[in-house]
Specification:
alpha/beta, six-stranded parallel beta sheet, 10 helices, 14 strands, 41% helix, 20% strand
């Protein structure tokens, strides 16, 4: 019997999508990568350019410009299409226009016979993840948003920079909406088993400064270069690896809550175990009272924003 060949279908080859494809090739994550975009020439050019780097890649990868029919055999469809966040816009400002785009895309993907896992990267990612679940009819566990995977990485980076410790040895989470109402889980943040709250006990202002720089990072980057794409591309590759390699890794992704954290019927960023089946389990952190209140606020903002589009 032939071995299974992993195929990733990328829809949307703008800044984020093309950066993801480049990072995917560099890390040798999948055997096949198909690029799908309304801008055929751009995607064909990306496929050509990526193929010219195969001689330097760690593993062979078949890369081509394709169509929605190529999603039928895909293990993962990654959604990076949609309108981008412009200077002065919040991620939630993008809701209406991107919901319309996604309804059409998801319909085309599902009509191909696709039966794999969706990864959603387009903003507002929590609401669009909920939409993909609704539009696709797939189980909740097989629709995953990038959630706060990037916010958590930014958090770990800034804490590592402050303490002069390798980012990979900082254990801390950002949860909630990927946006203005997200929150740091200080009560579970540690370096080498030592709680960060103990280390920064007399530096409350520093704690807030670090978090604000995490929360507002996208705005600062957008003002300087127009868009953010390298960090999220790396986060998407990390999520792809966790799925294809059946890792059972814990990542802060946007997933459906069905009673966890006392919340129902919403996609939002929380730690979850990710493997070949998608979301294996949501990790319920024991939040302190302040964190609970902030998380509930984040949930309510998402639900209020979604309610006009998903009534009943």
């Amino acid at each position: 019997m032939a071995n299974h060949v992993n195929r990733v279908a990328l829809i949307g080859t703008g800044f984020v999508g093309s950066s993801y494809a480049f990072a995917l090739l560099n890390q040798g994550v999948t055997e096949e990568l198909v690029l799908i975009d309304l801008n055929k020439e751009k995607s064909e050019g990306d496929a050509m350019d990526l193929n010219h780097g195969l001689a330097f890649a760690p593993k062979p990868t078949k890369i081509w410009y394709g169509s929605y029919k190529d999603c039928e055999s895909a293990d993962i469809v990654v959604l990076c299409a949609g309108a981008n966040q412009k200077p002065g816009e919040t991620r939630l400002d993008l809701v209406a226009k991107n919901l319309k785009i996604f309804k059409s895309i998801v319909s085309d993907v599902m009509n191909s016979g696709f039966d794999g896992i969706f990864i959603v990267a387009t903003n507002p990612v929590d609401i669009l993840s909920y939409a993909v679940w609704k539009y696709s009819g797939l189980p909740q566990s097989r629709v995953i948003g990038s959630g706060t995977i990037l916010d958590t990485a930014r958090f770990r980076y800034l804490l590592g920079e402050h303490f002069n410790v390798d980012t990979r040895n900082v254990h801390a989470y950002i949860i909630g909406e990927h946006g203005d109402t997200e929150l740091p889980v200080w009560s579970h943040a540690d370096i080498g088993g030592i709680p960060i709250l103990e280390s920064l006990n007399d530096e409350k202002e520093k704690l807030e400064e670090i978090f604000v720089n995490v929360r507002d990072a996208a705005y600062h980057i957008i003002n300087r270069k127009g868009a953010t794409y390298y960090g999220i591309a790396m986060g998407l590759v990390r999520l792809t690896k966790a799925i294809l390699n059946n890792e059972n890794s814990i990542l802060t992704v946007s997933c459906y809550l069905d009673g966890e954290y006392g919340v129902n019927d919403v996609y939002i960023g929380v730690p979850a175990i990710v493997n070949r089946d998608g979301i294996k389990k949501v990790i319920e952190l024991r939040l302190n009272e302040e964190e609970k209140s902030k998380f509930e606020h984040s949930v309510s903002v998402l639900q209020e924003t979604m309610s006009p589009f998903f009534k009943g």
